[in-house]
Each structure stands twice: as structure tokens, then as C-alpha cells.
Specification:
This protein has about 425 residues and is of the alpha/beta class. It folds into four domains: about 160 residues, MoaB/Mog-like domain (Molybdenum Cofactor Biosythetic Enzyme, Chain A, 3-Layer(aba) Sandwich), CATH 3.40.980.10; about 50 residues, Molybdopterin biosynthesis moea protein, domain 2; about 80 residues, Molybdopterin biosynthesis moeA protein, domain 3 (Beta Complex); about 80 residues, MoeA, C-terminal, domain IV (Beta-clip), CATH 2.40.340. It contains seven helices and 28 strands. Strand 8 and strand 9 form a beta hairpin. The protein is elongated and about 90 Å long. The protein starts with 17 loop residues before the first helix and ends in a 5-residue tail after the last strand. About 40% of the residues are buried.
Length: about 425
């Protein structure tokens, strides 16, 4: 199992830009999970651990791409129709022992192996049969409707790279070369908890002054969408001893520890002191909105991520910082979410030097192109804004203003998983 370096999250100095923080994550984090074999049916959404090299060609033989007639191109007339003897029939799964002879045609079906000498296939709807012959119109190109052996995959091709998240198409590609199993990384085991005497679990009674714990559920769901095995450690009281003992136990059998809230400098925020006692903690002073504070640290070789307490900030920082870390720890090479360019449907001014994320919904303008409309309330505690929006517009540090019609980077919420 790979090991994290000492002080893997260490940083000091001025406010850090988002690109610097993401680059530091990439440089400092490594895979922390072992490999295992998974059947194709169990490999979906897993991270491939070894390159897949094909030992066979796909397709394994030249074959017909359509139902029709296979001929020798040189027998066809350049002008006018050609009449050829219908000399055989080849279905998919059959191999013809007879070559196509002079002025002959074979009936052939999609996927059937091409017979010797046959080099061109005509679609059945373009031809007609007449008394043991087939009548072929002019104009076909040589080699039409013929699929060549290995035109999709050649022997020795690396068809899947280690670090790839296995989607249905990758699973199908592996099956196309006859594989029944793949070597994948084990899921990242994440210990997740909340802290606070004022926090109550969903379904419990809610005394005055208390709130329900939304963050543990939203973060847990996001982690599961990334393929993690999540151990829900519940809500810890504001007790230094309980927090310290829980962290120590979690570090024994998890690959990552994550929480939201409880990492600032308040008297009842005990996570910081517990991490300091067991390992190291670093507060990243990021120039972002929303999202502070964001704490990262480690207990031995087990990384710790402390997300903010506000429900919007926790999801935003998860998407942009925690998600790449989780993916990299689990062996993925593609850790950055895909951004899309959309047109602004609103003007705005912002502070120089700070990365900001705005919640937006997508409408369509008059030409059908997507246009982003800002959610009217932007408080970090308004979780309904994340439900009623389609994603986030990301505004870079150097941008100070834009007008309606400006092109902006859009991060859809479906990129979380």
C-alpha cells in the first residue's frame, strides 16, 4: 500500500489560490488502497489498477457490416447493372470454405466472416434476386460495407489505462476481448462524522437551539457516488476526549477521515486539538467564497479533511477540493471535474484575488444556447439553493466584473460523482 509523505498538506504564507491548492493536492497525494480482482459485473464505477492489453483482434476476422451480397469488385460493371451467379450463403458464425469465384456472389449476413476473394458487400435493399442470380446496381465503392480484422482493436493494443473509472463502455470493451475480470483498486474507506452538542440526527427530536445534521448525509452521499465505503460514525459531542479517541480508532482501519464543522478556533471546536495531539493539522488559507475554513491534516499516514460547517460551503468545497483528493487516493487519474462554457444571464462585480462559486440554473436563450441565471439568495446556509440550481459558475481570482452575455465556466452538479 502506498504511503503519504510527512506534512503532505503543509502550507503557510499568503492566501492560496485555488489552482495552487489543487496542484499541491496532485503533487502530495498518492494511492492509499490495495488492488483486487473484480468480475466485469462487479467492476462498474471502480478504478482500473492495471493497463489492459488486448491479446486478440477485434473484430477477429474480416466481416460484413450489413446484410447483403459479397462480391469481387472487379466483376462489377462501371456502368449499368451487373448480373452475378448466387453461389453460396454465409450466416454469422459460419466460415465459408468456398472462395468467391469469377462472376459469383454470396448471400451474407451482418457479422459473417468474409469469404476468400470477396472484397465488397452490397446492401440487400440495393439489390434484387432473379432466378439464382443477383442483380447489382452500379456505383458501389471497392471495399464498401467490409469491416477489417483488428480495425477496432489490434493485438497488443492498450485498450484501457490504469486510473480509468470504469463506465459501461469500458466494461463492454473489456468483454469484447474476452476478459471476465479486471484488476481494480479497492474502494477508499472513509470515516465520516459530525461534531457538536447542538447537532441532532435526522428523525430525532429537535430541542430549542439545535439543528439537524444535513452535512453528514450530503457528504456521505457524495462519497458513495465516488465509490467509497463510508463508515458513518455519527455525531460526536463537544468533548475533546471523545473526539480524540474516535479519531485514533478511525485511523486504525480507514483510508481517509472526513468531517464538516468543528475545525475552527472556538472553545468548543475540539477537532483541531485532537488532530494536533494525534498527528498534524493545517488550515489552508484559501482565497475562496464560499468555503472557509478548510482544514487538512493527517494522523500517521491517514489523511484528514475538515470541511466547513455551512451546508452550501461544505458541498462546494467537497466538489472542488475533497473530491479530487478522494479520487487521487483511490487511484483515479481523472480528478478534475469537467467544466462547460455558458453565457451569463446577469451582471456582477466581485472582489479581486478571490475564487468564487455562484449557484445558477440553466435556461435557454433565443437561439437555444444555455444561459446561466443566478440563484437569488447566496447565503452559505441556504441548502435549498443547491437543490433548485443546476450547478455552479466558477469565477476566477483575476475577474472583477462581467456583463450579461459574458462566457463563464459552469460546473454541473452531476459532475460530483
Amino acid at each position: 500500500m502506498a504511503q503519504l509523505s510527512d506534512d503532505c498538506f503543509a502550507f503557510g504564507g499568503e492566501l492560496m489560490r485555488t489552482d495552487e491548492a489543487l496542484a499541491l493536492l496532485t503533487d502530495q497525494l498518492s494511492v492509499v488502497v490495495d488492488q483486487e480482482s473484480a468480475s466485469l459485473r462487479d467492476a462498474s464505477a471502480r478504478i482500473l489498477a492495471k493497463d489492459v492489453t488486448s491479446a486478440c483482434a477485434v473484430p477477429p476476422h474480416d466481416n460484413a457490416a450489413v446484410d447483403g451480397y459479397v462480391v469481387r469488385f472487379k466483376d462489377l460493371a462501371a456502368q449499368g447493372e451487373t448480373r452475378l451467379e448466387l453461389a453460396g450463403r454465409i450466416a454469422a458464425g459460419e466460415i465459408s470454405t468456398m472462395p468467391v469465384g469469377p462472376r459469383q456472389a454470396f448471400r451474407i449476413f451482418t457479422g459473417a466472416a468474409m469469404p476468400a476473394n470477396g472484397d465488397t458487400v452490397l446492401m440487400q435493399e440495393d439489390c434484387r434476386e432473379d432466378n439464382g442470380h443477383v442483380i447489382i446496381p452500379p456505383g458501389i465503392k471497392q471495399g464498401a460495407n467490409r469491416r477489417f480484422a483488428g480495425e477496432d482493436i489490434a493485438v497488443g493494443d492498450v485498450i484501457l489505462k490504469a486510473g480509468t473509472k470504469l463506465r459501461p463502455q469500458e466494461i463492454g470493451l473489456a468483454a469484447s476481448i474476452g476478459l471476465k475480470a479486471l484488476t481494480v483498486y479497492q474502494p477508499v474507506r472513509v470515516a465520516l462524522f459530525s461534531t457538536g452538542d447542538e447537532i441532532r440526527d435526522a428523525g430525532d427530536a429537535l430541542p430549542p437551539g439545535c439543528i439537524y445534521d444535513a452535512n453528514r448525509y450530503s457528504v456521505g452521499a457524495a462519497l458513495e457516488r465516488l465509490g467509497c465505503i463510508v463508515a458513518d460514525l455519527g455525531i460526536l459531542p463537544d468533548s475533546y476526549d471523545v473526539v480524540r479517541d474516535t479519531l485514533a480508532a478511525a485511523a486504525e482501519n480507514h483510508d481517509l477521515i472526513m468531517t464538516s464543522g468543528g475545525v475552527s478556533t472556538g472553545e468548543e471546536d475540539h477537532v483541531r486539538g485532537a488532530i494536533d495531539a494525534l498527528g498534524k493539522i493545517h488550515f489552508w488559507r484559501l482565497a475562496i467564497r464560499p468555503g472557509r475554513p478548510l482544514a487538512l491534516g493527517q494522523i500517521g499516514n491517514v489523511p484528514f479533511v475538515g470541511l466547513p460547517g455551512n451546508p452550501v460551503a461544505v458541498l462546494v468545497t467537497f466538489m472542488r477540493f475533497a473530491r479530487p483528493a478522494v479520487l487521487q487516493l483511490g487511484g483515479s487519474l481523472e480528478t478534475e471535474p469537467m467544466m462547460y462554457r455558458v453565457r451569463a444571464g446577469f451582471p456582477m462585480k466581485k472582489k479581486l484575488g478571490r475564487r468564487e462559486w455562484l449557484r445558477v440554473r440553466l435556461d435557454r436563450d433565443t437561439d437555444g444556447a444555455p444561459i446561466a441565471q443566478k440563484f437569488p439568495r447566496d447565503g452559505a446556509g441556504i441548502l435549498t439553493s443547491m437543490v433548485e440550481s443546476d450547478g455552479l459558475v466558477e469565477l476566477p481570482e483575476d475577474l472583477t466584473s462581467f456583463e450579461v452575455g459574458a462566457m463563464l465556466d459552469f460546473l454541473p452538479f452531476n459532475e460530483i460523482g
